[in-house]
Amino acid sequence: MTGSEDTPVYLAADCGGSNCRVRLYDEDGVVLSEGLGGPANASLGLKEVLSEIFRATRDALARREGPTIPLSRLHAGLAIAGLIEQERRDEFTHIPHPFASMTAETDAFVAQLGAFAGGDGGLLITGTGSCAFAVTGDEKFYIGGWGFSVSDQGSGARLGHLAVRRALQAYDDILPSSPFCKKLLAEVGTHPAEVSGWARTARPADYGALAGLVIEYAEKEDEVAKNLVRTIAEEVNQLIRALVRRGVTEIHHIGGLADPIRPWLDKAHGRYVAQARGDVFDGALRLINNRTGLINKTGKARA
Predict the structure, then answer these.
(1) How far apart are CA 239 and CA 252, in angstroms?
(2) Could you say which DSSP state residue 299 is in?
(3) Can you give the pTM of this predicted structure?
């Protein structure tokens, strides 16, 4: 990249329950570098979210060849999972930061913005958490996404949580066991007391990390794993039906669980599948350029 120290550099960040991914772009939209940080869901607290964004950004800057770009030159657009509580949204607009500018919205809002290039359509995320967001004419609305403890149906964390409960039921001979149950307990604790200790500090990302194991054993025809996946698939079906009832006719489905769960979904929902025009990073760039979403106007601080 060439240009003066005044040339803008754009930082697009996808902050989710499992990790934080960032991309740096020049003023022509060319990707300069990418970086990775840890879990960055808003439920962890905005200071922790920003800490992971800084970590991912430094990772991206370190991977890039050429002159050093200071954080103060970056215009940041952030897609933050779980940025729904008004108190936390208000906090975002005042929290100190080191960037040239900083704006944010929920990950679903930003991904929808990218997928439909600012137009109408529904965005369904099933990753560590889950959420749907849609735009139909002048109406914008969310479905789900209210946090792991009370929502997040059809998500990887929900699948992992159900799996741990089911494995313990097998251990206690409440329900039949299977090779999957034994394998899962080997991952989190062979005795219920160990599992309880693990669960005491487990985050949604920890439960979500078990989703792949459930899918793996379901594909091996393990009946317990298959029933767990069917349960989650029906929860995803419910989210799709809820969008359709609100008049959404095009739905783009993304997230770490989107592809693995797709074969288990109601085949009739295929009529609503929409191909994306862009991704969450494209949405973050639109967020910056259109000054859409929450805008932080506070003074800068060192990261």
Answers:
(1) 12
(2) P
(3) 0.87
Parallel/antiparallel/unpaired status of strands 74-80 and 130-136: unpaired
* Average pLDDT along the chain, 303 residues, taken 10 residues at a time: 70 95 95 96 94 96 90 95 93 94 95 96 96 96 93 97 98 98 95 96 95 98 98 98 97 96 97 96 95 81 54
Query: Same CATH topology for 9-116+279-296 and 130-272?
Result: yes
Q: Are 102 and 71 in contact (CB under 8 A)?
A: no
**CATH number assigned to the domain covering 130-272:** 3.30.420.40
Task: Give residue for tokens 């693995």.
Answer: 260
Distance CA 106, CA 79 (A): 5
Give the 3-state secondary structure of residue 288: helix
The domain segmentation of the chain, as residue ranges, is 9-116+279-296, 130-272
Q: Which helix (H) or strand (E) holds 36?
A: strand 31-37
Q: 9-116+279-296 domain in CATH 3.30.420.40?
A: yes
Asked if 158 and 130 touch (Cβ cutoff 8 Å), the reply is yes
**Chain position carrying tokens 């379901």:** 218
Beta strands (DSSP E) in 107-190 are 121-126, 130-136, 139-143
- Give the model's pLDDT for residue 32: 95
Tokens found for residue 269: 């929902």
Say if CB 122 and CB 243 are below 8 A apart. yes
CB 124 within 8 A of CB 254: yes
Q: CA 80, CA 39: separation in Å to the nearest integer?
A: 11
